[in-house]
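Q: Could you write out the predicted structure for this multi-component system? I'm mainly interested in how the pieces pack against one another.
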Amino acid sequence: MKETGLSEEKIRNILDDSKRQDLKYEHVLSSMCTYPHRIAVEAHMQFIESNMGDFGLFQGTYNLEKEVLSMLSHLLHHPDASGYTTTGGTESNIQAIRSMRNLFLQRSKCDKPNLVVPDSAHFSFDKVSDILDVELRKASLDEHLRVSIDSVNSLIDENTIGLVGIAGSTEFGQVDPIDKLSEIALKNNIFLHIDAAFGGFVLPFLEEVYKFDFLLPGVTSIAIDPHKMGLSTIPSGVLLFRSSDFLESLKADTPYLTVSTQYTLTGTRSGAAVAATYAVMNFLGKEGYRKMVSECMDLTHYLLKKLADMDVHPLIEPVMNVVALEVPKSDIVRSRLANEFNWQVSITQNPHGLRLVIMPHVTFEMIDSFVQDLKQVLQTI
Ligand code: 0PR
């Protein structure tokens, strides 16, 4: 830091310059985030100093958080759910598994607890394993890239604290057979966490019905991220538990704050993101999200039709607005698209493919132009 501060003008120039170096979403087909809704941005700015880590000081924001939790508990079919707003899917997954582990260890003696997750689980579960010292057992996928129930069953033993099911996998946008996972969890008397960080704001608004939430009796917790398809600002995740016992198992005493207990992983938490989520959910309503999801799906099908004309096909029929394509040498294709045409796409690992996420910032024009550029790359690969 310099001894004497810079002028406002100088700082603005530096910031403008840095902002110009950031990619515009108009070139991004790899991200699960997008421009937040303007009403979310407005609310975020209005509550910019609000700290949910000491919510006794910010009673108004705290009431907004309660409203957000209530709206999502209803959406996910369990009005009595308890939880809190997190920084996103990673924190929600850590806290969900931490509570499972704590409750499991309260009732059973066990040296090395393990957790069964699909092979398609987000890398946040590797962090979970490291932080919580819980062994991760990765179940294989079936030909539709959903977790194989036989594989899950084969990995469970007396030290298994629970299972994870994914409702919208990061790479493929696939939904695991959560009804079957729910039955297995109940049969074995273990917990079941659903990672709906991406799919939580998609599945309830699709025409086709997918059972993935608390309607299934074995589901004990759900992660759902407003900062992905919820159009809220970053950082905004939500973690919901079927019963308050889970939350209680995360309790820490905070005697000198305005509230004497905390259940969260972080201390200081953004109240701005809470207000943003409240604002956008109330502004759009279910109708607004249904329209947004339907537009993303129309674009997804438009893209697939154009790609089929070029003999490029998806690895699985997309369930949501995530497309994994069967493309040879996908890593080279990805870097050529970036270097020659300024497109950001990503790749899938297993099986290899080219991955596109059709977020609300994507337009028909973007797809036309991307497909044209992809065609050129594929002709010369
Ligand atoms: N669970 C699932 C299913 C996810 O897809 C993600 C993130 C997480 C958990 C973790 O969420 P947080 O990153 O909010 O903690 N999925 C995206 C991914 O890893 C996150 C992302 C978003 C990455 C935008 C890049 C990007 O530009 O691809």
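A: Regarding packing and overall arrangement: The longest helix spans residues 271-309.
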